[in-house]
Amino acid sequence: MITLSAVTEPGGPSGPAASTRRVSGRSVDDADLAAAPFHLSAGDIAWVRATLAGLSPDAKLRQLFCEASLSDDPAAVQALADERLGGVTRFVGADLEAAWRATRQLVVSARVPLLIAGDLEGGGIGMPCATPVPNQLGIAAADSVALAGEVAGLIAREGRALGFNWAFGPVLDINARHRSAIVATRSFGSDPGRILRLARAHVAALQREGVASTLKHWPGEGYDDRDQHLLTTINPLDVAAWESGFGTLYRELIAGGAMSVMSAHIALPAWAERLGAQGLERFRPASISSELNEGLLRGELGFNGLVVSDATMMAGLGSWGPRDRTLPEIVANGCDMILFSFELAADLARLQRAIDDGRLPLQRVDAAVTRVLALKAALGLHRQTVDERVPPLEHTRAVVRCAAHVETSERAARASITLVKDVDRLLPLQVARHRRIVLVTDDERAGFVNQAAPPALEIGALLRQRGFDVRRYAPEAPPTPADTDLVLYVLAQESLFTQSNIYLDWRRVAGSAEGAMRRHWHELPCLLVSFGHPYYLFDAPRMPCVVNAYTAVEPVQRALVAALVGEFEPGTTSPVDAFCGLPDAHF
Known about the structure:
With 587 residues, the chain is an alpha/beta fold. It is built from 23 helices and 16 strands.
């Protein structure tokens, strides 16, 4: 359990600038490097020390940045490579060869081996060129430790084939509130026990394949309905409740060897209050909080690995204070690496000014860079050839979307389908009874970062292949028993950043205010399928039949249709409360 033994003294001045006086500043010694999760040998430690000693002051600061790589254009890639940063987060598209060439170019150009990171989460946040797999909530629906490990291993092998060595996952957030659009499909559900089982398998599989894992989003999201991309969110739990949930998750996975933690723009006021914080200072985001990074994460939970901030352009940081102050505080208050910048030159200058005026001690910079280099050494990057870091293209093509991975993907897709309710025993669908289907859907969908579009909805075509007649809903000609056998609602909104909320927008899907108020299930069979957000019963509690599938990637769409027509029995245990606490939603 947590005890009060933090690195900071209680009381004292409060306010947004106060925590700069509470820097621990402890150096990273050889014992730290030899300990978990780095486990460096004497030779590895010698490389870390020699590399650190050979870096100029400017080069040290550059090692603190992990910048976004959004383009595979060779000129843009080289411009980024020339910055000589510590890491790059790759957002790859559908062109496998272009993605491979861009990563290879970055790796070849690096003087100090690069950390190549990515949001390797699956679902709509997966790599378009890779084998599509369910997102974390879909894996939670399957509730199989073995399958969770298989899917994470698949993600890691394909990531390694494309040059990745660092995954920003697993997500440890808890689906505590159904209105939390940013957590929803990205987490392993609402049960901390299930989250721990599946996350442990996920971490082990990633790191077995040579990809460092990242526990996120520290100190834990899911109790605030809002999105830290848009504001600083708040974890409202008291210390005991936090320890029993998030504390246990992080403590156990740190003990299991997780190599990094992402410190997010989330406040934990109960911990700050315990240390004497007052007023606004209680709501300081973790990304710039020494109390949370040094005191709680390192001091109480014993984490010795690398701490990376969440993306610094998020308003969860920007709404707290001016960047001239907050950017240096990321490093000063316990993060070893800065994720993304608005303008790299300006951010480097901000760090240098903070060093010059004493807000960012050089000892703290050296400690952060040491951990960056230690993670690289722990992954063996300093010993690997270019071909070992980014395998030849022929090898990459042989690994990505290979038959074994496709088979795993299809099994995972089937296991992820959840039948939430079927009060009228509608399923399975049969052509003889349900041939004429009216499809109602929401076309307002977004892709992830550099994806031009989200996965196309093919459910209509898949049903037509099985002999059903499917037509799109027309507001001017609503379905009637004379021309329709089934009204099929298909929604596909996964958790992506800057979505304040996800809900069933009746007016948008119906095309008019009148249509928004019309309910068809008293005259016609109705079925709602969600390839994303699992909480649509909040807006349609009397929908008689609901199936959650969590992501619209192609194998899940095929599995969903197979389940609807009775080719296999879908699961019936949901990883979240799909009824949103509404007793009438069960009927």
